[in-house]
């Protein structure tokens, strides 16, 4: 969820009208906010099975309160009551509800500002091999533009530089890709094992991979699905940065200890170099659960 949300302009939060908010609901809203998903539309699913409209009203109120608590405009967020199953079965009422949900997305989620003039950067989400052509990397363009024949660096792959010899989006060839596009990029002469998910394809010299950075981090409380015990210097969780999943060690300096539900500034040393820059959001996970979210403050020693 972390790497997927980091590439979204908006999201649909699906909540069961029967069960209401679950622990993962709160976690997903918190993560969406942290990685820059600024607009959410809510789908209250299974609304066909809710016999008491007042209970559904209560679930909607709880969802709005949750969104407000995480910095969203909870009172203004569209909430649409749907039934995915009944819509798939062709029930006209619930088919119309899905159409209403899509209309709400079109209306509420604005066209995002694209940083087209910035140097090109695309986190690698997947790597493929096309027989007879070479290595293809896929992902969502974070910023800038890319054209056939442009030189790029594969950061995280020992400084590999190459030339773009092919661009596609959903199987259709293209001459140029720009921020916001999901693309497949064919790289000349790059071995399949030299690049992997978590690497970054960028304009040469525009970003420098680093292992050390300082960050401002919020440690999730137990009620948010996080830890019930404090973190201390030497703590070694996994850091999810763009599409990368990297182990790292935390140094809290003079603070020493941070309790769940608190925010602190700390230093991190990653297990390998990752392209970093101030303002970049990330998540901290341990044992399959998110335990913290943060923003890079500065990069380097």
Automatic annotation (TrEMBL):
Database matches in Pfam families: GTP_EFTU, GTP_EFTU_D2, GTP_EFTU_D3
Limits of the Tr-type G domain: 1-113
GO terms, molecular function: GTP binding; GTPase activity; translation elongation factor activity
Gene Ontology cellular component annotations, sorted alphabetically: cytosol
InterPro entries: EF-Tu_GTPase, EFTu-like_2, P-loop_NTPase, T_Tr_GTP-bd_dom, Transl_B-barrel_sf, Transl_elong_EF1A/Init_IF2_C, Transl_elong_EFTu/EF1A_C
UniProt keyword annotations, A-Z: Elongation factor, GTP-binding, Nucleotide-binding, Protein biosynthesis
Superkingdom, natural source: Bacteria
Protein's recorded name: Elongation factor Tu
Protein source organism: Streptomyces misionensis
Classification of source organism: Bacteria, Bacillati, Actinomycetota, Actinomycetes, Kitasatosporales
């Amino acid at each position: 969820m972390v790497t997927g949300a980091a590439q979204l302009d908006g999201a649909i939060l699906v909540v069961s009208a029967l069960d209401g908010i679950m622990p993962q609901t709160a976690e997903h809203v918190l993560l969406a906010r942290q990685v820059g998903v600024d607009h959410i539309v809510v789908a209250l699913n299974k609304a066909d099975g809710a016999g008491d409209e007042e209970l559904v009203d209560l679930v909607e109120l709880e969802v709005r309160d949750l969104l407000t608590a995480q910095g969203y405009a909870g009172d203004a967020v569209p909430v649409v009551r749907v039934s995915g199953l009944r819509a798939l079965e062709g029930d006209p009422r619930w088919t119309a509800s899905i159409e209403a949900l899509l209309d709400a997305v079109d209306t509420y989620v604005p066209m995002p500002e694209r940083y087209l003039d910035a140097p090109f950067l695309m986190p690698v989400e997947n790597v493929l091999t096309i027989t007879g052509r070479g290595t293809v990397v896929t992902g969502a363009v974070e910023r800038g533009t890319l054209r056939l024949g442009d030189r790029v660096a594969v950061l995280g792959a020992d400084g590999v530089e190459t030339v773009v010899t092919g661009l596609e989006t959903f199987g259709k060839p293209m001459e140029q890709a720009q921020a916001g596009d999901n693309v497949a990029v064919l790289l000349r002469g790059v071995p399949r094992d030299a690049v992997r998910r978590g690497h970054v394809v960028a304009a040469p010299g525009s970003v420098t991979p680093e292992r050390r950075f300082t960050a401002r981090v919020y440690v999730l409380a137990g009620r948010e699905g996080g830890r019930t015990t404090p973190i201390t210097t030497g703590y070694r969780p996994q850091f999810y940065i763009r599409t990368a999943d990297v182990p790292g060690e935390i140094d809290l300096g003079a603070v020493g200890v941070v309790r769940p539900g608190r925010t602190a500034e700390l230093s991190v040393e990653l297990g390998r170099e990752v392209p970093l820059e101030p303002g970049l959001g990330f998540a901290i996970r341990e044992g399959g659960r998110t335990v913290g979210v943060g923003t890079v403050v500065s990069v380097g020693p």
